[in-house]
């Protein structure tokens, strides 16, 4: 046996690692480009969820409709609004949905993600998630603000969006682990998403088309914020 | 590994192990420190052909574990514990070992670069520790192979340790995936 054989083996491993490092460091963000979402028309909603149709009609005004008797007559904060947009520099997407003062949000660039929860008042939203803090001002139909993720900070501007654009979340329980998927879809067809298996394993999601997403044979049914906000914000729900 | 019970005449032989063991220890410690300090990127380049990086890792680890079983039997043959004729067990042992090692490289790279070492869940904690120690022991074995006059137990012990660690890695990753998600490509 060549005395150098084992050294060559180690060297090949080192070279492979170096190649993977270079390839990974130069890989582009995992934002999926698909055809632009067609203008939402009543019958053309691609979402299979039964609740989809009632939301499909676009609102002509940028002021979101009120869904309940307003409790705070003075507060100009929208009672119901959905925002989604690109995070500057990072290139990922962020989505923020307001429902009667409660706010859910999601930030994802395919590689990193954060589920966010918070409050809205006086046209300002504040959201928190794991390693993440988001603050934004609501004006002119936009949410503009800053996201702090670990020790990084990026600005973003998210415009009002209507279904089928916006934020989606799906959860499923498999034997011994929880699967949580998150997706953001923009009106221009960009989408991003990530699916986590338990707390420690996850990967970027495929291009999002709105329907049931199959992930390793697990059917994931994306829900819009109207559907998931209560279970997501209730204390009983496991943090994700 | 305790060296205290080695007979005095073997002291020189054991001394030859110092550098391989030290180098292996340094590699294991370096991987652990990297896994702890490097901010996880959530993404790493890997092999194409699987539906996702999890599937890639699960199947490459399974390939390595199967090759590790080939390693055990070819090692038995080399040491005459299984009677075979010819020198092919040595060839099989070397090449199945190289393939197994190379199959683990994209997996470990994804683990350390994309995820990092974690200790918050027993499965992940044992997986992190086994993974770092595995490469340390592998370096020890590769540096021991060309050396003459090592104690006779060196390669069986180090090889057995590698097999045990790799099976532990498979159980805490692929086996977990197969029993949680199912057998998916």
UniProtKB/TrEMBL annotation, chain B:
Keywords: Membrane, Transmembrane, Transmembrane helix. InterPro entries: DUF6529. This is Uncharacterized protein. The keyword Transmembrane helix applies. Pfam families: DUF6529 (PF20139). The chain crosses the membrane at residues 12-34, 54-79, 99-119, 125-143, 155-178. The lineage of its organism: Bacteria, Bacillati, Actinomycetota, Actinomycetes, Streptosporangiales.
């Amino acid at each position: 046996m060549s005395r150098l054989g084992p050294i060559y083996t180690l060297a090949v491993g080192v070279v492979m690692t170096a190649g993977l490092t270079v390839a990974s460091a130069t890989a582009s963000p995992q934002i999926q480009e698909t055809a632009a979402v067609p203008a939402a028309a009543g019958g053309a909603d691609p979402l299979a969820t039964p609740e989809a149709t009632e939301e499909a009609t676009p609102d002509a005004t940028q002021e979101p409709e009120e869904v309940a008797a307003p409790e705070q007559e003075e507060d100009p904060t929208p009672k119901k609004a959905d925002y989604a947009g690109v995070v500057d520099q990072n290139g990922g997407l962020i989505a923020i949905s307001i429902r009667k003062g409660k706010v859910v949000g999601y930030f994802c660039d395919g590689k990193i993600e954060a589920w966010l929860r918070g409050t809205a008042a006086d046209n300002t939203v504040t959201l928190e998630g794991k390693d993440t803090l988001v603050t934004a001002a609501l004006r002119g139909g936009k949410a503009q603000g800053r996201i702090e993720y670990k020790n990084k900070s990026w600005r973003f501007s998210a415009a009002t969006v209507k279904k089928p654009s916006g934020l989606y979340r799906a959860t499923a329980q498999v034997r011994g682990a929880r699967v949580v998927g998150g997706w953001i879809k923009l009106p221009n067809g960009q989408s991003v998403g990530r699916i986590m298996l338990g707390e420690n394993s996850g990967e970027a999601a495929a291009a999002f088309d709105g329907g049931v997403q199959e992930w390793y044979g697990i059917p994931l049914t994306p829900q819009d914020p109207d559907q998931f906000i209560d279970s997501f914000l209730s204390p009983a729900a496991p943090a994700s | 590994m305790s060296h205290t019970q080695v007979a005095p005449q073997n002291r020189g032989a054991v001394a030859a192990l110092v550098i391989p063991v030290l180098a292996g220890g340094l590699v294991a410690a370096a991987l652990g420190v990297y896994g702890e300090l490097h901010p996880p990127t959530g993404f790493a380049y890997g092999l194409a052909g699987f539906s996702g990086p999890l599937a890639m890792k699960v199947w490459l680890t399974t390939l390595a574990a199967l090759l590790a079983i080939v390693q055990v039997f070819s090692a038995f043959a080399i040491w005459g514990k299984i009677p075979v004729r010819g020198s092919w067990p040595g060839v099989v042992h070397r090449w199945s070992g190289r393939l197994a090692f190379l199959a683990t490289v994209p997996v470990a790279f994804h683990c350390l670069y994309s995820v990092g070492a974690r200790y918050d869940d027993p499965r992940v904690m044992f997986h992190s520790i086994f993974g770092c120690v595995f490469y340390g022991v592998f370096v020890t074995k590769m540096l021991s192979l060309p050396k003459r006059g090592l104690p006779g137990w060196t390669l069986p012990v180090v090889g057995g340790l590698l097999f045990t660690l790799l099976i532990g890695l498979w159980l805490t990753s692929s086996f977990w995936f197969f029993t949680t998600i199912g057998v998916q490509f």
